[in-house]
Amino acid sequence: MTFENDQVPISELPRVSELILQGLEKGYLSVMLLRLSIFSAALLLALVGLYIFQPIEGLPGFAYVALLLLGIFYIVWRYIVIVKGFDNKAYALRDKDIVYKTGWLWKSMTTTPFARVQHISIEQGPIERKWNLARLKLYTAGGSTSDLSIPGLEYNTAQDLKEFIAQKTRLSESEEE
Amino acid sequence: MSQKKSSDIDLHAPQRQSYVAILIIIYKLTQATIRQSLPAIIVILIGGSMKKVGVIAIFIVVLGVVLSIYSIISFYKYYFYIKDDKLVVHKGVLKKTVLEIPFDRIQSINNEQNLIHRIFSVIKLNVDTAGSAKEEVQLYAIKEDVADHLREYILNNKKVSVESKEIIEIETSDKQSEEKEKIFRLSVLQLLKVGITANHLRSFGLILFFFFSVSDDLEEIGLDILSKAEEYLPVAQVILQSVFMIFFLGVLFLGVSFIVSVVSTILKYYGLTMYRIGDGFIIESGLLNRKQHAAKDSKIQILSWSQNLLERVAGIYTVIMQQASSVSAGNIKNARAAGLSYNDVSSVSRYIFEENYSELASIDWKPINSYYAYKLIVRWTWILVIPILVSFLDNNYKPLLFVVPIYIIIIWSCILRYRKKQYGLSDHLIAVRGGAFGHELSLMELHKVQNIKITQTPFQRRRKLSSISIHTASTTLYIPEIYTEESLALKDYLLYKVESSDKPWM
């Protein structure tokens, strides 16, 4: 199945798929793993606590064990997804748009043309600050489901990208968050 | 800052709404109270013995007095005025609120007149802002001349781009109707058609839900409909009986839901008229509650028209104009009209897409992969396999009487859904077709694209398939299950069109 169009043959269009993609900073993997570890510790603590105190009357002991095993399984699965999925997270900057790919099993690729960007912001959480990383967010009028968010950028890179895109969209600096 | 004309109205002095507003506030409060306590009321009405009547009457009187007093207080606490390019509203009985709305933030001013309004010749004014719903103002009833004056004043003192001013002017300029061109008006016969072809299944569902939620209460007061009915039927014919019951209840519910949806649709679309004014549309409709919707061409992102099975037989269409409401996306406003003939649809489309509309006729429709049908069928099978298994384990084959016919209909609709799902591209347009027993078509100009997302599940990867979501400032066009190669090419084409176009999306 190929496209046919009289005026612009598809073969001459710039292809998103032939881009050289830029991976995220390695530090972001650590950020994600650290975040997951904090979450896992809290979850495990809660589940072990449940197992020890067995607060719900009438619930047999093996139900708590099953819950704990389910929790462990979920945590292991999250670790696998993060480690396996990290290499699939990548972005590419073009003259007129930006592409972000993500997902290991469930893949997605989002492209936002600069001409439609309404607002740009840089976000940085406390853990990300330790690694000097930031997240670039591009807002369009397409609603929150279609906003583009690229994590794991070095703070300066995020700044540069924001500058570049803002120039393209002729957004004023005052719209910074 | 005094107005030269009609200087007898001073908008800067705090003023209350028309006294009619008291009636409307009482009506709204009563409606809300009844809605909240509906199940209780029904139980009392059905189960209440004569002794209780006195108590109920006293209760209703007390409640009525309390509601009226509350309404009157809230009426006196509610006043509005203009202060330095801001509309100020004071309100609240227990908690006082002051709203200050700068004119520049006002997106649109819409008026509404229901029966009460028309009798007393007052207007309900909705002031929409770009912000959250909290910042929106409703003046329940103000005199027509005050409304006109207020609207004019806000328009004249708004220091914003010409474009948004135009929007307001379109939405409010129905008074000076010289340049208003009527595109379409629903005749009585057509209105009847629209009523009969309405989506009866929806009201059927609502009534069914209502019945089930109330039937427990009915049972409690000794009115078990099902067991009562069983008493009158021969006990031996167990299966026949349940079939009869199902059939009887089904016919009853269908009949009631048919009447409900016909009446509500007729009330909603009574006197439906579509006007063309400047570069936008105005759609007016409603019998008891007359509403006016405005849609400016540039704000319309996607135009959809559809036919359900009944509408197909009657040869009429429902049209939806999906609009971007404001720059900060969020509340999406759709203008909707029913009962249009194909010619009406074409003329509406021609207004919106102008010469590009002719491209639709020669569009090359592309199918999607049959995996779509397979996926839908598998999903429904998972849902239905549980009741089937349970009924086998229970040695109770009665549920199969429903499940099997439903399953057949579902499979049929999945196949139809797959076969009708098609998309097509032209130089300026993208169109997506769909529907199961009915038809749907969504049409969009390519430069309205905001963002494109291609997704792929592990199941799709094996088949080299993916799905594409084309986001606009209103809704999303979704094309499922096309070859990845094809979706990438589609994406490249759309991006090329967006990036090489300098037309604004709004």
Please tell me about this protein's structure.
The complex is a heterodimer of chains A (177) and B (506). Chain A has 177 residues and is α+β, with helices and mostly antiparallel strands. Chain A is 42% helix and 23% strand. In chain A, the strands form two sheets. Chain A has a four-stranded antiparallel β-sheet with strand order 1-2-3-4, with no helix packed on it. Chain A has a three-stranded antiparallel β-sheet with strand order 5-6-7. Chain B has 506 residues and is of the alpha+beta class. Chain B has 16 helices and 21 strands. Chain B has helices at residues 20-36, 38-47, 50-77, 115-119, 144-156, 162-172, 188-196, 200-220, 225-231, 238-269, 309-314, 342-353, 371-393, 398-420, 458-462, 484-500, and strands spanning 15-16, 79-82, 86-91, 97-102, 106-114, 122-129, 137-143, 181-185, 273-277, 280-285, 289-296, 300-307, 317-323, 333-340, 364-367, 422-425, 429-434, 439-445, 451-456, 465-471, 476-483. In chain B, strands 7-6-5-11-10-9-8 form a seven-stranded antiparallel β-sheet. Chain B has a seven-stranded antiparallel β-sheet with strand order 14-13-12-18-17-16-15. In chain B, strand 20 and strand 21 (476-483) form a beta hairpin. Chain B is globular. The A-B interface holds A 1-5, 7-8, 10, 13-17, 96-97, 103, 105-113, 115-116, 118, 140-148 and B 324, 327, 329-330, 364, 366, 425, 427, 449-458, 461, 469, 471-473, 476, 482-483, 485-486, 488-493, 495-496, 498-499, 505-506. Strand 4 of chain A pairs antiparallel with strand 19 (451-456) of chain B, so a sheet runs across the interface.
